[in-house]
Amino acid sequence: MTSLLPSSTSASPEPVLSGEFDLCEADLREFDGRDEEKPLLLSVGGFVFDISEGRKFYGKGMPYNIFAGRVATRALSIGSLDEEDLNDNIEGVNEKAVAGQIKFYGEKYKRVGLLKKEC
């Protein structure tokens, strides 16, 4: 299984200078919109983004809530809403699609950290 790790690629978003933190997948799940007091986070390409500004799309009961609190590199890159695609496995996925998703989230939302492989 191939996994994306944060790297210094051209698709990599600008780093946040302060307030960054690392989360593992289990920690990330706490930011899925169930607790409206917490920010909404998702991970794509090993980067963790605060998608709270998109609460009308990613919040509880909203169309893209499946991505909130999740590692979503594969699903976002192939346009899937399937639970089985919520991971960082990019085997067989177009690299430009992956880079495009990292770029999209990096330009639209604040990067708040990195995804750790283990808790």
From TrEMBL:
It holds the Pfam family Cyt-b5. It comes from the Eukaryota. Coiled coil: none annotated. Residues 23-116 form the Cytochrome b5 heme-binding domain. Belongs to the cytochrome b5 family. MAPR subfamily. This is Cytochrome b5 heme-binding domain-containing protein. It comes from Tetraparma gracilis.
